[in-house]
Amino acid sequence: MEYPKPKQWEMLSWVPIVAGLYWLLAHTGGSWLLWALLPGSMLLATGVALLLMPGDLRIYGLMAMAGVLGALLTIPVWIVADMGTAFFTMLGSVGSFMVAGRVGLMREPLYLGASPPEFSTRMDVKVGFDEFVLGYFVSAARVPSGDLAARMCDEALKLEDALRARGAFDDPVAFHPAPPAPEETYVEKSRLYGFDYEVLRFDSDFTPDTALPGATRWKGLRRNQECHVRILRHPGKPRPWLLCVHGYRMGAAWMDFGLFSPAWLHRRLGVNIIQPVLPLHGPRSVGMRSGDLFLDGDLLDLVFAESQTLWDLRRCIAWLRANEENPRIGALGYSLGGYNTALLTGYEGDLDFAVAGIPVIDFAQVLWRVLPPAHLHYFAQRGLDEARYRNILRPVSPLTLPSALPQERRHIFAATGDRLVSPAHPLLLARHWNVPVNWYQGSHLSVRHEHDAREVVRMAMLGAGWPQD
């Protein structure tokens, strides 16, 4: 890994600084400040922070958020002020957004084995949207604080000891028993984007070990206890089934269909689709937003979230095998779904193939990268540092067990300019699987438009002997 040379000053910071000052000073009066105060202050603050503290990863995401907010407020600005003012506020906002993408990518280390990213205006835009989403994730996350932080640190040591006592570190297969197929199910018909599909519902029946700290709290999340699975199937002759595993904060049908395009996978490639909703997402949410408590709040809950995810995915596969005659099944996951696709291959060796797309692999690294310094110091003082958290997550890590699939059935693709999942993650999985990473010149969010990523999926199907029509 090669780090970029450090800078004392970041000269591109003048773009958001000037844009922020223009927002705040272009006009006066309460009606102007109503629209200008938030984007102007955010652009100015992130610009000054970039100038004085280059390298802080949180700056770029907040700057991208300010740029998008400023661009969205162009029409109100036009109404309150004039077209010229709206033009310059738009110009400054878009310029700041692209600076966030360019500087964020420039400050990312170069990883041995990863294709280097190209630097272009097109890539600036792609990476800028990554920074925007990362800024949203970081700013909207509920970071454990106060009494919750103290309790979590105390429980971390107890949870680690309890997992060790139950053999979860030495024998994860026994810790994650194979679930039976659901016996009682409910099916509803629905339609979206011109596609008819079914929604299969059944009880998860996942029961965490009550001896583990936090298990009782997890069992109390009632809405999370019912599985929701979307199914698109072709009439007539049997077709292969593609298990599609969505990413973090997704789970709504319109989002998941946007990522796993039925027009491409179902209609063009001719496969049946089985698309489970992950725990705490979509209709299984227990908070205001899809995915709340999966990666925020009590960080120890991730052990239960991932244990239930693995259980639910295997339960979907068990249902499919119980209700279809010798179904051919492949798995495709993106981001958090890539993590869970990789995890699944340690327990399901009968899959035709698995494609881990832009996969996050090391949650400890991801979270410790963006947590506030004060929290990190406090956690470490109380015994919960990055290494201990990584060890606690070992029973639900895709790096703990070897893949049960043959080498030729494992596939990985990743983005050279990914700002949500750094290239270190797919490289970790590639070393564990002993397969190469297929790189595309893009970002995390641009994956649905990248031909190279789709080509990996198509070649995985061809390699498994799936017909494509």
> What is the H/E string?
HHHHHHHHEEHEEHHEHEHEHHHEHEH
Intertermini distance: 43 Å
Question: What's the pLDDT, averaged over the residues?
Answer: 93
Determine the strand fraction and express it as a percent band. 5-15%
Query: Number of helical segments?
Result: 18
- Could you say which structural class the secondary elements and strand pairing correspond to? alpha/beta
Overall shape: it is: globular
Rg (C-alpha, Å): 23 Å
Helix content: 40-55%
| Largest sheet data | 9 strands, mixed
Strand order of the largest sheet: 1-2-3-5-4-6-7-8-9
Count of distinct strands: 9
Poorly predicted regions: none
Verbal overview:
- With 469 residues, the protein is an alpha/beta fold.
- The chain is 48% helix and 11% strand.
- The chain is built from 18 helices and nine strands.
- The chain has a nine-stranded mixed β-sheet with strand order 1-2-3-5-4-6-7-8-9, with helices on both faces.
- Helix 1 packs antiparallel against helix 5.
- The longest helix is centred in the N-terminal third of the chain and has 24 residues, at 83-106.
- The two termini are 43 Å apart.
- 46% of the residues are buried.
